[in-house]
Amino acid sequence: MTALFALPVRILQATWAAPWALVLALVLVAGAPSAEAASRIKDIADFEGVRDNLLVGYGLVVGLNGTGDDMDDDPFTRESLIGMLERLGINTRDGELSPDNTAAVMVTGTLPPFARQGSRMDVTISALGTAENLLGGTLLVTPLVGADGEVYAVGQGQVQVGGFVAQGEAETITKGVPTSGRIPNGAIIEKEVPFELANMESVKISLRNPDFTTARRIANAVNTYLGSTVARSLDPGTVLVRVPRGRAGGVVDLLTDIEQLRVEPDQLARVIIDEQTGTIVIGDNVRINTVAIAQGNLTIRVTETPQVSQPAPFSNAGETVVVPRTEIEVDEDEDRRLTVVNGGVTLQDLVNALNSLGVGPRDMISILQAVKAAGALQAEIQVM
């Protein structure tokens, strides 16, 4: 589900390939009145029992155009093919079996909540051996089991592959991942997950981002709507709601009404840093105490331009030699100055102060970490 309102954040992103280029993107969602800024409970929390279940299976894909597994390198594909043919009454153990149009695959899928027997679900196909391309293949009947080892669905159908491979004698072009594909509605659900929602006397609401303040706001919103104290927060991630006795419609109607209630989620003061991509995400609640910031780098550039020295034409003396030419430049960033960031500044002031120093993204990450170490950054820094 997609939340209706995104909390104000600002994103700083750059690429390390251009050391002096800083691509600054400020994404600011202006603060709106609380009634419009609030999110639905269904967008920030889940209800107990309403959950997906993961399924997995092992199968064979046939009909490939010579891009299947190598039977010598993938013996499990050969044994699987022999076993399947024996179940169909064909004995191939005494002969040589080395087709290249068969591939062993792993089949994965997600069993939706309250899925009923006979309904269908999508499955994903991934090559397990040395197959080069699953384009044009067909998945044979494959049981899909859950964590308890029980079969909950059976998959079969034509594999749809988004990628492709085109190759010649000197060049190969690959688009996407041709060894992975999907079968829309490719599995039939054979067994249901038992769960009686209508008979529950209480329901737990699980927050996707646990927070004490948000949990209490959800409980207060539910109590205000129902006009009685039936909800209370158990911990930062759980709110317990008791089903009122005699309520018409039961649990299903109650959850339908609760999930539409709007609550304004609280946000932690947090700075997210991804050093691999150079991305910095700063939350709106980040605050800075008075601090002075200076940034400078020492850069030494050594350039070698050797020259060739040779005697004059038709000369009987002298020899041709290589004369080294070395040029050394030292840049101490003397134009950088000390910048004072006053306490209580906004996030925009902090960004402007850092940009005024002319720092790059990697240096900006180091500055934020140093400000945090100095105790002047009132936020949590999380490095991805």
TrEMBL record:
Any Pfam family the entry gives: FlgI
Keywords, comma-separated and alphabetical: Bacterial flagellum, Cell projection, Cilium, Flagellum, Periplasm, Signal
Alphabetized GO MF terms: structural molecule activity
Location of this chain's protein in the cell: Bacterial flagellum basal body
GO BP term, example: bacterial-type flagellum-dependent cell motility
InterPro entries: Flag_FlgI (IPR001782)
Domain of life according to the entry: Bacteria
Gene Ontology CC terms, in alphabetical order: bacterial-type flagellum basal body, distal rod, P ring; outer membrane-bounded periplasmic space
Matching PANTHER family: FLAGELLAR P-RING PERIPLASMIC PROTEIN FLGI, FLAGELLAR P-RING PROTEIN
Family, as annotated: Belongs to the FlgI family.
Subunit field text: The basal body constitutes a major portion of the flagellar organelle and consists of four rings (L,P,S, and M) mounted on a central rod.
General function of this protein: Assembles around the rod to form the L-ring and probably protects the motor/basal body from shearing forces during rotation.
Protein name as it appears in the record: Flagellar P-ring protein
UniProt organism field: Roseospira visakhapatnamensis
